[in-house]
Amino acid sequence: MEIPNIEYINKLSRNDEAIKQKFIGILKFELPIEIDAYYVSLQLNKWSQTKQCVHKLKNKIAILGLESSYYLAEDYEKSKQDSRKKLQIEFEKTLTLMQHFVNCL
Predict the structure, then answer these.
(1) CB count, 10 Å around CB of 97?
(2) pTM greater than the 0.90 cutoff
(3) What are phi and psi for residue 34, nearest 5 degrees?
C-alpha cells in the first residue's frame, strides 16, 4: 500500500512553514468531517450522496500523494452496485491510512 506524504503541500507552500501549517490545519479540520459524511451517507444507502463524498475525498487523496488510491477512488465513484464492495473495502483502508497519517502531523 502507498504511504501518504506532504510533498505536494511542501511544493504548494514553497517550504514556507506558516503556509505549510495552514494547509495542514485545513487538512486536519476537513478530513475527519469528509470521512464522517462518507460513512453516514453510506450507512443511509444514499449512493449519490456517497459518490459526492468520494469525489471530495479524492482531493485529499491527491494532496497526500496517494496516486494509486486516487485512481481507486475514481473507480469506486463510478462503480456499479454489483462491483462496488471490493472497491469500498480498499477505499476505506485508504481513508484509515490517511486519517492516521494526518493525526500524526
Answers:
(1) 18
(2) yes
(3) -70, -35
Per the structure block, which three cell numbers stand in for 59?
482531493
Q: Is the pLDDT of residue 37 over 90?
A: yes
What confidence tens digit (pLDDT) does each residue in 67-102 have?
A: 999 999 999 999 998 889 999 999 999 999 999 999
Question: Is the pLDDT score of 1 beyond 80?
Answer: no
Cα-only R_g, the chain: 14
Cite the DSSP H helix spans in the chain: 7-13, 17-43, 47-63, 67-78, 84-103
How far apart, in Å, do the first and last CA atoms of the chain sit?
19
Residues 69 and 62: their CA atoms lie apart, in Å, by 8
CA distance 12 to 73: 23
Distance CA 58, CA 73 (A): 6
Using H for helix, E for strand and C for coil, what is the string for 1-25?
CCCCCCHHHHHHHCCCHHHHHHHHH
